[in-house]
Amino acid sequence: MDPLMLDGNAVAGLPQEVFAVEMTTAIATCGSCGAADAIGATHVFRGAGIVMRCPHCDNALVTIVEDDARVWIGFAGVRTVQVTV
Ligand SMILES: [Zn+2]
Q1: What is the whole-number distance in angstroms between the Cα of residue 25 and the centre of ligand 1?
Q2: Hey, how many other C-beta atoms are within 10 angstroms of the C-beta on 49?
Q3: How far apart are CA 61 and CA 75, in angstroms?
Q4: What is the DSSP string of 2-62?
Q5: Residue 5 Cα to ligand 1 middle (Å)
Q6: Which of 17, 40, 51, 80 could form a disulfide with 24 if both were Cys (CB 3.0 to 4.6 A apart)?
Q7: Confidence band, pLDDT 50/70/90 cuts, at residue 83
Q8: According to the model, what pLDDT value does residue 37 have?
Q9: How far lies 21's CA from each of 37, 82, 84, in Å?
Q10: Cα separation of 48 and 62, whole Å?
Q11: In this predicted structure, what is the pLDDT of residue 43?
Q12: 32 by DSSP, 3-state: which?
């Protein structure tokens, strides 16, 4: 095993720390057009799940699906998310 490689458990606290912040003011950079804007400025569509779209190019930034016990969050359309800690 590569001595510099760790499994995901080694950084489990990081996502917990990141997602504990106020997300509406987090800045998402769109993976399609490159615009950087607050998560709160996205266009949100509800159906079987939730799709958050870029207000500049309509790219699907984030998808959220939940059932009674779990939540699946996809950031496929986001290049980066900037949060203030
Ligand atoms: Zn965009």
Answers
A1: 17
A2: 14
A3: 6
A4: -TT---GGGGTHHHHHHTTS-STTPEEEETTT--EEEGGGSEEEESSSEEEE-TTT--EEE
A5: 34
A6: 40
A7: confident
A8: 94
A9: 17, 11, 8
A10: 14
A11: 94
A12: coil
Rounded distance from Cα 43 to ligand 1 centre (Å):
11
Q: In this structure, what token pair is assigned to residue 46?
A: 């509800």
The H or E element that residue 50 is part of is: strand 50-53
Residue closest to 27 by CA, chosen among 40, 37, 19: 37
Distance 15 CA to ligand 1 centre (A): 24
Question: For residue 14, what are the contacts with CB-CB under 8 A and spacing of at least 6?
Answer: none
Amino acid at 19: F
Digit-coded pLDDT (tens) for 11-60: 667 666 667 878 888 899 999 999 999 999 999 999 989 999 999 999 99
